[in-house]
Amino acid sequence: MSSDPSSLRTVDWKNNKVVMIDQTKLPNELVFVEFDDYNQVADAIRTLVVRGAPAIGVSGAFGLALAVLQSNATTKDELISDLENAKKILFETRPTAVNLAWGLEKIMIVAKSRDSVEQIREQVISEAKKMADEDIEINKTMGKNGSILFDDNDTIMTHCNAGALATVAYGTALGVIRATKESGKNVKVIATETRPIQQGSRLTAFELKHDGFDVSLIPDTAVGYSMANGLVNKVIVGADRIVKTGHVFNKIGTYQVATMAKQHGIPFYVAAPLSTIDMESNAEDVIIEMRKGSEVTGIGDKKTAPDKINVINPAFDMTPPELISGIITEKGIAKPPYEESIKKLFEN
Description:
Blueprint: E1 11-14, E2 17-21, E3 32-35, H1 38-46, H2 53-70, H3 76-91, H4 99-112, H5 117-147, E4 155-158, H6 173-182, E5 188-192, H7 199-210, E6 214-218, H8 223-228, E7 234-237, E8 241-243, E9 248-251, H9 254-263, E10 268-271, E11 277-278, H10 294-297, E12 298-299, E13 302-303, E14 316-319, E15 326-329, E16 332-334, H11 338-345
Parallel strand pairs: 4-5, 4-7, 5-6, 7-10, 8-11, 10-15
Antiparallel strand pairs: 1-2, 2-3, 8-9, 9-14, 12-13, 15-16
């Protein structure tokens, strides 16, 4: 494994197959899985083999690229109909992250704009590959934009995993932390473990340690302690969906971290590409994905709760705009009032 984060690609296209890091196996082993069927990609998204909004968006696009290869269609109409079917299956895997719909839609527009079956096949694959490459560039630009908000010797808290593993490579929130370090500033990171699936301890801590960062892990319950004791200067997280009012949907627990940060006067930043911003929906329209209770009642095969206990296991929560100091994107940093500043991002 090389220390260049862009060399560790979460999702890639090789020899007409989709290749992914199986994130369910981290940090114990680094395993790459290969898929040649879009149904396998849908399963991989559903079971968190691949996760993180930008990575899911590109995975959806690659799923459609597999679908064009799998299809036996001889006419454009038949091929589009096969793609629509694949799109439906891929779209239904995770309802909260908006990047999935964005990635699928982008591919469908390209497919419909071509005339022959051959042209559609070629263009869909090349567009999906282009989206993967662009993801890395977008993250690097976002990182540079955000790095000015962080100072030498800052200790930055992050929640969940918004790193290279949540994107094609480099990362959103962790991309900003990387860019801050690359600009010559010395920074430390505190990662929350992020129950119940431990993306903080399994993925963020793994990734940052691998890349030579000074990182400490805390239980989710120690966020208030860390802030009250002056261990944290700033917070940065990613997002699965941001609506036009600046309400941010991100991994469950983000709202608590943001509330604590406000209480202690600590700036709370969100880093996300424009593809994560949903200008159509209102906050109350967003579906929060509920996941199975077994994620909470045990860890692996080890039981940690009584049998037949009721479980409430939302995957995401909503952080209101008044708790957010800034939203970092590839087009610049949006500051309150968000309704105006977010709209501006799409104008330049």
